[in-house]
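Here's what a typical entry looks like (Biotin transporter):
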Amino acid sequence: MTYSLSLNTPMQSIFCSKQGGLAKQVLLVITGVLVLAFSSQLSIPLMPVPLTFQSTTVVLIGMAYGPRNGSYVIMAYLLAGICGIPVFADFSAGISKLYGPTMGYLIGFLPAAFLSGYLAQKGFAKNIYTSFVAACLGVSVIFFLGVTILAQYAGLRAAIEFGLVPFLLSEPIKLIAVACVIPKLWKRQ
């Protein structure tokens, strides 16, 4: 097993003993999905991309759960939404969300969680500064993919104006909060 796929993460060690088993692993993933679904509903309805706590929560989950379990949470979240469970922003669901202007943001969740979790395991979770860097890198993936896909619907200028600029002030503030929490979680391990 490679280091990036190990289960040596705060959430794993807090909630699952070494003999944890599949049931505890599934419970951990379901809890992550519920937290992400809840954060998706904390929304300011901007158009075409609402301001939510999804991206910050994705990064938090990645850093707390690690790359493997964080990816499992995101895959389960996306699958739940595709299957019609209203977990996306504004209690929306359906495969149509993966073919609309927010598609890039949703798809970006998976590599963002993996990247931020990987960086956390590689030592970026040790202090606030490096945690903030890891969180920023993770969320950058979400915004890069989100703006890229949104530009296909609205043009590049509008995609940047409506899909990135409104978040330039709020996102760093939310990521500072993540950076303050993550080192404490990793020290508990």
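The chain has one domain: 3-188.

More examples are in the samples folder.
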